[in-house]
């Protein structure tokens, strides 16, 4: 998408959108004849804004409007009898209710000659001039040029169209205006049909025929088909028309604009349902060309974010001098004729000024008091020079003092704008149709749209980012590989673990992913039709949300931990006894010790001399051994010089060894865990890193057949080096499989190895059988892990023939993983016989006919079935190749495909292939086994299968990727398991097994097929999701069956593809017999029918939608949180399914719902994270005492504990000594040592 298109899609807004101050029909209906009040300035016109000074309503109230407001907007006796405007007649007399008897909804006593109750009449009288104050009748249009001979008048009126019951509508209509050589439009006069709803009108010029039907109204949003040149405009409070200067005109005809688009902006905040409008313009064209073409240009700021409750907020934008220097005419620049400033309801004042060489030249628009409902056009008596190198600076001031919400740029008057508009000459129509277009050089933050396209500017650095790299596609290409390898999954989008790691890395290192550049990039890429650009935006959005979500979880965990630390358990708190109690315990311990010591002294002095020889015989061993008396021997410790016998020492040594082993064990366990957790090299690259052709490997006989590996591989002398040429290149035999395979010796050595089954199909040799080769044109394999490459063919234009066999032709087995054939009922929407990257889809061909994968020889159909081709079957087919290139080899090519065989004799039954399984997978890392399942819904088979016998299953195969370990597919009937269809006890991705059934298995109406998949993520540290890559996962079962119904397989729901997404079964959504499909409390069918989108469309439009989608504003966030809490469809499997469906939708309302759900999820997490961080800061303040206080308390308690423990130990020892002394016999103490007791 060109930036011009982007800028216009976002910014082609002139006078903004809906008004709060509009003449609400509800107020007009609250007074008699409120919709029939004559204008005090022109009796032929009505004054819809009966309570306002402006004819159409809005802006300041007149005296009657003030009185009506004072009465609570009710027609009361007091209001009726009052003379609000002071002209001598009561309000009731002026409005046709002189008796003051009218009630709301009734008919007034008089409906003619209804005069204005709020403006004194006659307006021109001296009395009324004083009473009406500053009020003046609207200026009358006066343009003598339109009466000159030859001037052509043309009416551009909208066909009478109903006004939708919504606040803001942009309605357009395209016209062919002129096919003459050239003529000038010299005047434009607005024709207002419904002033109660019309806010502004714009005329856009088109150099080419618009891409819409002519003379037919259509909702156009803020863009106007493919017409981008703003020619003229009208808005409330502006002049009654535009009469151009005598020397300028808007160019029309073959050398100008042949077509125009009229755009009307309707404002219907009360959502009235019975309004119509046919407003437009009367245009005047002169055949006499004037000296200069004229145009209108716009400058200003498209990025606004105004905080609430602010008395004044300033925003600005300055056009870049480089733009005018390169794009303006070099022989005098532009001449400005008039200018006007545009903001919305929060705008208070502003200023637009002209700058040259860094100096202010003059004010262009000095808007000291801005009123949204009374725009002022500043006409210049003499045209003002706008020269090459000049800058136009637009300053806007706002007040959000009376609102509690943030205000952003947007269409609604509840949002804001900051733009200046100028009519100028000379206009260059050719330049206005190219990019950059000087007529539309607005800014987005610090970024000037036009500078990104200037040829003279090679780098455009904003906040450290070269914004031109986005425009050139360099930034997209820079990160495309990362997105493909780290992020991209088939059902975009999900931010996986590795994608989040990539996002955090680039967010920290890439200036373009921060500040104004990232907002500009997301704005640009969200609108892009380029898939890689859209993917970049999608993953940046999704990973921003997940990043906030993960950080919020971490913050919550930190809060829980801080709460635990800051609130000690009661028992711990109570154990910290008061200082006085602790001192009492210590004192008591001292006293107890003194008493025991005194008792011991008394006992010793009273002892008699006696022998203690019997101490040992009483079994009391007192052993005091010190560690320094121990020696180490042979890795164990033996105690030497210690008391006790050898057995005691041995027991101590044994205990020590046990203790040492216990101490060593955690280290060994940790070591084993470290080894187990070591990450293996990536699949497919280990050999490149570790395998080498060595002398040892060369001379070894790996397969045991009597020849060395070197002899078998053509290097018998073992001299080959990598990159060189082997000494022999012919007769190269296999070094890893013993040959001849059929010999008795090799049969033992090769174990379970068997040669692949050879394809054998006698039917293909029957007379009349036609063979057709569907081979991919030789194509380079991209250097990326996973590629799906397709090629379409015209296969058959005969009445009907059956395909009876499909034989794979493998050109590059090193890269090819599988082949599939899809049948096409209609011609594919891609060029025939031309390779194209197709992802998992295959153009517009949806019927899977046949497939081949590693380990499968080919498919020869039963004699009674065939795949239908020809005029009564498939005329076209698409062959799909899945390439797996994890090493990202750059010089690989492939031309694989199928040889197909067609029989002119149709067989009894058509056959097809159906698929079941689970499309929502999210496998946590480091799990020994994970189970996922999907069961087809019995209601699907009950409604869609043939009622006279269902399907007959011929064979089945299961499909997972590298993490799949085992699985099972089973057939269920009436809640009971009938039998296993695919008992896959050991699953190997590289050797798929086809389970062929000797007798076809009945799959009857009401039956269910259950697919169970088991995975192991024990060796990966990342989450694994559903996706195309082998590093992602799948869970599918495939079955060939008959009879196949070609018509049903091309309608929806299609029984051939009834897979599940979580608990949601795709096919049940479309079943006519199922009125409601409730999943997790959500009726998922409301999404399919559009009811869910319509249910929340009003909320999205009123609370969220902004012209440069998307941003989650305050009110949008409040809406999101409300529906998230109350709507079951916005949680669990339903919301994932909804986002999957809506992100792909081409419907703007559907896509908008997905966009705001995504963006508000991110902002919700971000806001909660900020709250959590604030809570953490508060908890840290409360739960972190001064370090010295904490440490002193801790050391004091520890010292008290040590003192108490030592006194208790003293008490125990003293008691033991007393016991020993009292039991001593009279003997000599000297004999103690002789008994082996060492003290």
UniProtKB/TrEMBL annotation:
GO terms, molecular function: copper ion binding; dopamine beta-monooxygenase activity
One Pfam family hit: Temptin_C
Transmembrane segments: 583-605, 1200-1222
Organism (species): Macrostomum lignano
Residue ranges annotated for the Copper type II ascorbate-dependent monooxygenase N-terminal domain, each copy included: 155-271, 773-888
Keyword Transmembrane part of the UniProt annotation: yes
Endpoints of the signal sequence: 1-23
Protein's name according to its UniProt entry: DBH-like monooxygenase protein 1
InterPro entries for the chain: Cu2_ascorb_mOase-like_C (IPR014784), Cu2_ascorb_mOase_N (IPR000323), Cu2_ascorb_mOase_N_sf (IPR036939), Cu2_monoox_C (IPR024548), DBH-like (IPR000945), PHM/PNGase_F_dom_sf (IPR008977), S-S_Temptin (IPR057626)
Record field: compositional bias (Basic residues): 661-676
Protease listed as a keyword: no
Residue span of region Disordered: 82-109, 655-726
Tree of life domain: Eukaryota
Keywords: Disulfide bond, Glycoprotein, Membrane, Signal, Transmembrane, Transmembrane helix
